[in-house]
Amino acid sequence: MSAARRTPRPVSIASFAQSQNVRRDDEHNEVEMLMPVIAEVFGTIGITKDDVDFICSGSTDYLIGGPFSFVMALDAVGVWPPRSESHVEMDGAWALYEAWVLLQEGEIDAALVYSFGRSSLGNLNEILALQLDPYYLAPMWPDPVSLAALQARALIDAGKGTEADFAAIAARSRKDALANPKAQVANDIPVDTLLEDDYVVSPLRRHTLPPITDGAAAVVLAAGDKARQWADKPVWITGFDHRMETHALGARDLTSSPSTAQAAERAGVAEGSIDVAEIHAPYAHQEIILREALGLDDTVTVNPSGGALAANPLMSAGLIRIGEAAARIASGQARRAVAHATSGPCLQQNLVCVLEGE
Amino acid sequence: MAERCAVIGVGQTHHKAKREDVSIAGLVREAAKMALADADLTWTDIDAVVIGKAPDMFEGNMMPELYLAPALGAVGKPMFRVHTAGSVGGSTALVAAHLVKSGIHKRVLSVAYEKQSDSDAMWALSVPQPFAAPLLAGAGGYFAPHIRAYMRRSGAPDHIGRMVAVKDRKNAMRNPYAHLHLADIDMKMVEDSMMLWDPLRYLEACPSSDGAAAMVLAAEDAVSGQYPPAWIHGTAMRSEPTMFAGRDQVNPQAGRDCSADVYGQAGITDPRKQIDVAEVYVPFSWYEPMWLENLGFCELGDGWKLTESGATAFDGDIPWNTSGGVLSSNPIGASGMLRFLEVAMQVRGQAGEHQIDGAKLALGQAYGGGSQFFSMWVVGSAKP
Fold first, then answer.
1. What Rg do the C-alpha atoms of chain B give, in angstroms?
2. Mutation target among A101, A135, A262, A353 for the B interface, most CBs of B within 10 A
3. pTM (whole model) above 0.90
4. Is CATH 3.40.50.20 correct for B5-119+208-222?
5. Among residues of chain B, what percentage have pLDDT more than 70?
6. For chains A and B, what is the number of CB pairs under 8 angstroms?
7. ipTM attached to this prediction
8. Is the pLDDT of residue A11 over 80?
9. End-to-end distance of chain A based on CA atoms, in angstroms?
C-alpha cells in the first residue's frame, strides 16, 4: 500500500462521554444506561440532538440475546422528527468511522456516535465462540481466553514476551486506572504478587485477562464552523483507517498484527511523534504485539486510562480508546495521539485513528 | 465536494428455499464473483468490502464478517458490517456509496445475504425480551393490523392485495434468479391459499429464501464493466422511534422524509412522471398501495386505485417490482440490496426479460424493523 495518503477533511472529536464501567448493571436496561451518556455528550458542549445531522451506533444482538438490540436503544436519543441514522454490528469505533466518512463528503457538519453493551447478561466464553467459522470452528466452542492463550504462548515461544512482561503490563494498566474514575478494575499490586496467581489457561493468569464489563460511550464529531464553535482548541482526526486479516488462526502469525501495521501506515501514525497511545488490547500480551505494529517506542505513554484491562465494555471499548486519547489532547497532556480498536479472535480486525491538537 | 459514484457490477445468487449446495461463504462468494465479472474486475481491484445482513441470530453466527473476510477477498482491506434491520441491504449499498463519494476509495464491493435455511427467523424474531410485548407472530403478524388500518382509512377493496400478489409473481416469471416461479398464479389461487394473518393469505406473504446480492460501486475515474454504469443521483436513510403515540405506522413520517430527501438530491418533483421504474420493499402484498402513497406517487388514499388501474404492472406507466420483488425472493438481509440492484440493472439496460425499455431514472427503496427504518437511492443512466 504505497498510494499517497489522501488528506482528510478536518473532523474533530467535539465531545466524549462514557458510563461508569461496572461488572454488572442490573438496575438499567440499555436505553437507561445510554440516556445519561447521551445527555452528557451533548450537555458538556451545550448542544442538543437538533445540532447533529447524522447518528450512528455500534452494538451486538448477542449480548442482549435478542434481535435488533439497536432498535430500542435509539429511544435514548429520541429520533422524532425522524433522523438520518445507521448502525453497525461492530464496536462503536467503526460507527465513528462510518460517521467520519459521511462528514468527509462535506454536506453535513456534525454527527452523534454511540455504543453500548451489557456483557454480564450471558456467558462471554460461549457467546464469543459464535464469532468463529460456523462450520469448522464454532461447533467445538473454542472460548476467547483459550484462543488468546494460544497467542500468548506463541509470543513467549517467539521470544517477544514473558509472563513477567504480561504481568508488568497488567500492573501498570490497573495502577494508571486509579486515576480514571470510570474504571472498573483499578489497583496497585506488585508484579511479583500477580505472578503468584493461578493460570486460567496457561500461560494466561487472571490478571492478564480483561474484566467483564457493562458500559456505554458516546462521541460527537464536528467539522467546519461547528468544530470551532464547540471547542476553543478542537482535537482533530488527522488519519483514520482499518484493516482485516484472515479468519483462519492457523494461517496467521499470531505474534504480529499486520492489519494494525497496515492501518497505522494508511493513517500516517509515523508522520509525527506520538505522545499518547490508547490501545484496545483486551489481553495484556496483546499490548506488546500492538505496540510493535503501531511502531511505538518507549517514550510513548500507553493506555493512561488503564485501557481494556481496567474496563472492557464490549462494543464500546474501542470507541472509548478514541475518546480517551482525544481527552488527553483536549486537556493539554498530549499534542498528538493514536487510538486503536480491535475486533475478532486474536486481533483479527484493527482500526487506527490519529488525533492531533493545535 | 462529494465525488460521483456509480454501480458498475451486479451479481446475485439463484434464490431458493434451501441452498444446500453452498455454505454461507459459498453463497456470498457466488454473488460477489458475478458482480466482479460484470464489472470486468478481479478481487485485487477492490479497495474495501461492506457487508450487511439481518440479525446474526438468524444463522447463529455472531459478526459473520470475521468468518467471511477471506471468502470475500477482504484480507488486508477495510471490511465493514452494517445492520439496520430489514432495510440493511439498502443501507449496506449506501455505506459503500459513501466510501466512494467521500473520495476514500475507488472501488467498493458491497454484499448482503441471508441463509434462512440455516436459521429459524420466526424464533429469532420472537425471543422474549424484558419489558417488551412478545411478538410471537413473526413479521406478518406485526404488519397485518397496520394493513387493516390502511384498508379502513382508504376504503380499499379486499382484492387489491391479491392483485399485487399475482402481479409480482408474474414479474418473477421473467427473472431467472427469483425464488418463486409460480406459472399458474391467479387471483383465485391467492384467494384459495391459507389465511395466515388476517387479511394476509399465504400467497400474499414473502417466502423464506437463501440468497445473496452484490454490487461493485466505483468512482467516476474507475468506471469499467460490461454495461454502462448506473449513476447514483441520490441516497438517503431515515429512522423514527419504534413506539410512541404520535407515530403513524400506516404512513410513516420517516418514509416520507426519506423520499423527500432523495427526490431533492435527484431533482425529482413528480415521482410518478419522472421515475421510470421502482423497486420497493413489499414483503406483504398490501405494502404496494401503502408505499405508493408514502413515496408520493399519488395522493393519500389513492394508492390502491393506482394498483387496481394496472399502473404498477409490467406494462403500466410506473412499473413496480419488475424483478418479482420481495414477494418472490426474500433472503432477508439481501432483500433491500436486491431492490437497489434491480433498479441499477434497469438503468444499465441489463435486466433481460424483465427490462423496462428506455428506463433512465429509477428508485430503489427498502424498509426495516416495524417500518421505522428506511433507506433509498435513485439511480440513472445519465451522470448526475
1. 19
2. A101
3. yes
4. no
5. 98
6. 183
7. 0.97
8. yes
9. 29
